[in-house]
Design goal:
- The complex is a heterodimer.
- Chain A is α/β, with parallel strands linked by helices.
- The longest helix of chain A has 17 residues.
- By secondary structure, chain B is of the alpha/beta class.
- Helix content of chain B is 46%, strand content 14%.
- Chain B contains eleven helices and eight strands.
- In chain B, β7, α6 and β8 form a beta-alpha-beta unit.
- The longest helix of chain B is centred in the N-terminal third of the chain and has 20 residues.
- The chains are: A alpha/beta, B alpha/beta.
- Chains A and B meet through β8, α7 and α8 of A and β8, α7 and α8 of B.
């Protein structure tokens, strides 16, 4: 089966970002979600791309002609592949997979973009788990080339191959991941981040020196404390807690400092304060 | 202020010692390189000379400057007495506590009371090295990164008895060398090795456990996290023997399983798959040997 039409679920940064990447590669994309109000985010994204010069006004017309937004699940009915990027709510994702199974054709592939939950648990809600799998993109999807293709317990080899093919067609580099907490990247990154948070809390070095050491010494693009401020401490706490719940592996156990900071509202750049202070007029 | 007319001693002429000697001589210090093994000394000195010759070839340095450094500023010696005039002595010898203590005590005997002894240890305790030196208040840790002649970062750590004056003078010296200093505690691995050894072992374990292929783990780490090298590329560069020693040294001190090297590391060493230097590690390499200029 040839993938021609692609569906995306989720009127959010990630859903729209993925949609743009897919549409730019020439695919027709239908984007679905229930909240009409959040459609506006999409226009903002297009405006930003125009301003940043990553999208020309001529290309914009062609791009928009391939994209449909709708709040009726029926907009996804002809999709050969649907990428689900709804909020990190397991019940919501499962319900979507179940409902979607009745709308799409027998041959459609259902892919979930989740960071926190078991891909298998989501895929099992589909009528045909053999044709379901995980496709984990990274922020911002327009820039980061990596996609973790996650084989759920029942995903067929053929579906995995098709997902690989599709990734390459949209200019991405697929890697094959198991359905483990964090797949590959977050499986390795979360323990490192937890270790950094604990070391900082124990006074190993100042935040500036800790960040600088890892940036200069190891060539990491951002030190851990700068990076988590950008990711959002609350989102990170949710993720590592989910990994810990799933595995009971102490490397994923959320450090005390993380909970303390989230409870006090220091969730990072978006809140104006995390490990560093951010002012709206002087952004780091 | 550090007086550049004074000299700097570098103990040990391996890859690290040579790199530090390059940094010191390039910054304008008279640099005395000590290695009691004459062959090792000559190897090290020719390594240093080749580095500067390459700098001239690349147009980064004039031939006159190179000659001045190599012929006038840089001195090799096999005798401790050769370090007598040094204001700072940096040791970059094998990671062995007793050996480092013994060597520092010898330096202590020949140098002036003002001389500061600097250890470039990456995993041992500054306090325990200092304890055997005869002058624990004038010992401090300055951990350079490999290759020292390229990497600007230095982790500065005080032992329990390091004096404020020693700390201040070491800081000024580090700046005079043109390095960027970060302050860290005298805890195993300081910052860099505390993180990278745990991370590398986690990656090896993930590969052994079948989380993904080594190629996919490298790709995921580079593309997903933006790291310049994947863990297996990095380990091949570091060398499995070096990683094994550093992991065990860390594990012995902290008894934290993150540092315990997975079995595969020992197996690779036994099979001679040390990495780039043997032509085979996690990957195969056509050309053996170390990094470029």
């Amino acid at each position: 089966m040839q993938i021609e039409k692609v569906g995306v679920a989720g009127f959010n940064e990630m859903g729209f970002g993925i949609s743009l990447v897919v549409a730019r590669s020439g695919f027709a994309v239908s984007i679905w979600d229930t909240d009409e109000a959040r459609k506006a985010l999409f226009d903002g994204l297009i405006d930003n791309a125009l301003k940043a010069g990553t999208l020309s006004s001529e290309d914009k017309e062609a791009l928009l002609s391939r994209i449909i937004l709708g709040t009726d699940l029926a907009v996804l009915k002809d999709a050969d592949l649907v990428i689900e990027s709804l909020g990190e709510d397991l019940a919501l994702k499962r319900r979507f997979f179940a409902d979607l199974s009745h709308v799409v054709g027998e041959d459609a592939i259902l892919a979930t973009h989740t960071s926190c939950h078991s891909v298998t648990e989501i895929c099992q809600a589909a009528k045909n788990p053999q044709r379901s799998l995980g496709m984990h993109f990274f922020k911002p999807p327009e820039v980061v080339k990596l996609v973790e293709v996650v084989k759920a317990e029942k995903s067929s080899r053929n579906i995995v191959d098709q997902a690989y093919d599709f990734c390459r067609k949209i200019g991405k580099e697929p890697v094959l991941a198991k359905d483990l907490p964090g797949f590959i990247v977050n499986y390795l990154w979360a323990p490192y981040m937890n270790q950094a948070l604990e070391a900082y809390d124990q006074g190993l070095a100042t935040k500036e020196d800790l960040d600088l050491t890892l940036e200069m010494g190891l060539g990491y693009p951002k030190g851990p404390l700068k990076l988590i401020d950008q990711v959002g401490l609350d989102d990170y706490l949710e993720m590592t807690s989910a990994f810990y719940e799933e595995s009971k592996d102490p490397k994923f156990a959320p450090p005390v400092i993380l909970k303390r900071m989230v409870k006090s509202g220091k969730t990072g750049k978006k809140a104006g304060e995390g490990f560093y202070l951010y002012h709206s007029d002087h952004e780091e | 202020m550090t007086n550049p007319s004074k000299s700097v001693g570098v103990l040990g002429c391996g890859v690290m010692g040579s790199g530090i000697a390059i940094v010191s001589a390039r910054a304008g210090f008279k640099t005395v390189v000590l290695d009691t093994d004459e062959n090792a000394l000559n190897n090290g000195l020719s390594l240093i000379e080749r580095f500067f010759a390459k700098s001239v070839e690349k147009g980064k340095m004039s031939a006159e400057k190179k000659d001045e450094i190599v012929n006038k500023r840089l001195v090799g010696t096999t005798e401790y007495e050769g370090l007598a005039e040094c204001e700072f002595v940096i040791e970059a010898i094998f990671e062995d506590l007793e050996l480092k203590q013994k060597v520092f005590y010898r330096v202590h005997q020949v140098c002036s009371p003002e001389t500061i002894l600097i250890t470039n240890t990456s995993t041992l305790s500054i306090t325990s090295i200092a304890a055997g030196s005869g002058r624990p208040d004038r010992v401090i840790g300055m951990h350079f990164c490999l290759p020292a002649q390229v990497m600007k970062l230095v982790e500065l750590s005080r032992g329990l008895e390091t004096s404020d004056e020693t700390y201040q003078r070491a800081k000024e010296f580090g700046k005079a060398l043109g390095q960027v200093l970060v302050d860290t505690r005298d805890t195993p691995g300081f910052i860099l090795n505390y993180f990278i050894i745990a991370f590398n072992n986690a990656c090896i374990r993930a590969y052994v456990d079948g989380v993904a292929s080594k190629e996919d783990i490298d790709k995921a780490v580079k593309l997903g996290l933006g790291y310049p090298m994947g863990p297996f590329e990095l380990l091949d560069y570091i060398g499995m023997d070096t990683h094994w020693r550093a992991s065990n040294a860390m594990y012995d001190m902290v008894k934290d399983r993150r540092y315990f090297p997975p079995r595969l590391v020992k197996e690779m060493i036994d099979a001679g798959h040390l990495g780039r230097k043997t032509g085979k590690g996690f990957y195969d390499y056509k050309e053996k040997g170390m990094f470029g200029a």
